[in-house]
Design goal:
Layout (H helix, E strand, L loop, with lengths): L3 E3 L3 H12 L4 E3 L6 E5 L3 H11 L8 E3 L19 H10 L4 E6 L14 E5 L4 H10 L3 E2 L14 H8 L5 E3 L11 E4 L6 E4 L5 H8 L4 E2 L40 E5 L3 H17 L4 E4 L5 H17 L4 E5 L7 H11 L4 E2 L1
Parallel strand pairs: 1-8, 2-8, 4-6, 5-9, 10-11, 12-14, 12-15, 13-14
Antiparallel strand pairs: 2-3, 3-7, 4-7, 5-6, 9-10
The structure holds threonylcarbamoyladenylate and magnesium ion.
Magnesium ion (MG) binds next to loops.
Length: 344
């Protein structure tokens, strides 16, 4: 298959919309990461997304909409039946990097939701993304446009690295602002539960809603301490996540990744020791350190992992960042890209 490169002009977006309407796959930029879009209501098209990504089919997709009315047909009983909290978030946080899990309507094929009776919905901020959804004239199911297990793509070039020849088209937009995927929040219970942390933080949601927002148990330890969160792999006795996608190997470059925690001195010493050891084994080591700016770390992490792969590094030492605020979501990606290999 020849993957067409499209621009962000009106004519090309119209063409991209047609491809989606006729059951094809188009990768497109969003403010978080690039998505791999298909008609969310077309079971066959959605099935081909799983195939192109090599993704397990129990891992549900996020359905992207362009305007509030688009939600009506997707959720059980229509938009007016969603909880008051969900209404507030839709109003205050969309368009933006927040995904809400809601009870699904019969219109959404179960292949889109990985067999669940809920559907994840997001209205992206990115203009190109919204124009594409409008041009397609239907909701667009889109996982991140990487091969399953790889770091999410934050440039069109990253998308082509994984998907060239496997999908119909790529919209060649710019680099994504946020750099990690949207916050996923389950709105089906009495109080919201964060299933996947992101740049929209727990504190932010609590501020908007005026109620308590919880983390899924898989994201925090028994004691509930966020600092020690997420540190044991589910297959080694760690808690099992509720969001199906959170249980798979994720965000991994070809290089081995090790996460190093600790203050400046500890970090320096560990990196030195491990770096020397790597050299002795004939490996080429790299270091990623982002200081204490979680937004910058989010923006660069996946891009850096892919770039270091291109440059042929064998082992990447990432300095753990503080888990306050958006740092929590960034650490979540760091830990997963390291496959839970955390040097204490
Ligand atoms: O920022 C994003 O969210 C990007 C862009 C393209 O919008 N998309 C994205 O999709 O990250 P994906 O498929 O890579 O991740 C979707 C996550 C997975 O962890 C999946 O398990 C979870 O959302 N999810 C989707 N539907 C769900 C549902 N009904 N219940 C619980 N979790 C759900
Ligand atoms: Mg993904």
């Amino acid at each position: 298959m020849n993957t067409i490169r499209l621009n962000t002009n009106e004519e090309d977006i119209r063409r991209a919309g047609e491809i989606i309407r006729s059951g094809g796959l188009v990768a497109f930029p969003t403010e978080t990461v690039y998505g791999l879009g298909a008609d969310a209501l077309n079971a066959e098209a959605v099935a081909s997304v799983y195939k192109a990504k090599g993704r397990p089919s129990d891992n549900p997709m996020i359905v992207h909409i362009a305007k509030m009315e688009d939600m009506d047909d997707l959720v059980d009983g229509g938009t007016f039946r969603i909880s008051p909290y969900a209404k507030i978030l839709a109003k205050q946080m969309w368009p933006g990097p927040l995904t809400m899990v809601l009870k699904k309507s019969a219109s959404v094929p179960t292949v889109t939701t990985g067999g669940l009776d809920t559907v994840a919905i997001r209205m992206p901020m990115d203009e190109t993304a919204r124009s594409l959804i409008e041009a397609a004239g239907r909701p667009v199911a889109a996982p991140s446009a990487n091969k399953s297990g790889r770091p999410s793509p934050t440039t069109a070039y990253d998308v082509l690295e994984d998907m060239d020849g496997r999908i119909d088209a790529v919209i060649m937009g710019g680099q994504c602002d946020v750099g990690i995927e949207s916050t996923v929040v389950d709105m089906t219970g009495d109080e919201p539960v964060i299933l996947r942390p992101g740049i929209v933080t727990k504190e932010w949601l609590e501020g908007v809603l005026g109620c308590e927002v919880h983390y899924d148990k898989a994201l925090v330890t028994d004691e509930g301490t966020e600092k020690e969160a997420m540190r044991t792999a589910p297959d080694q006795g760690g808690p099992a996540p509720k969001s199906p996608g959170m249980k798979y190997t994720h965000y991994s470059p070809k290089a081995k990744v090790r996460l190093i925690a600790g203050d400046d001195e500890t970090f320096g010493n560990r990196v030195m020791e491990l770096g020397v050891e790597a050299f002795r084994e004939g490996l080429k080591p790299a270091i990623l350190e982002y200081g204490n700016d979680p937004n910058k770390a989010a923006h660069k992490l996946f891009a850096d992992l892919r770039e270091l792969d291109r440059q042929g590094y064998d082992i990447i030492f990432i300095r753990a960042i503080d888990t306050k605020g958006a740092g929590f979501g960034v650490m979540n990606r760091m830990i997963k890209s390291a496959g839970y290999d955390i040097v204490k």
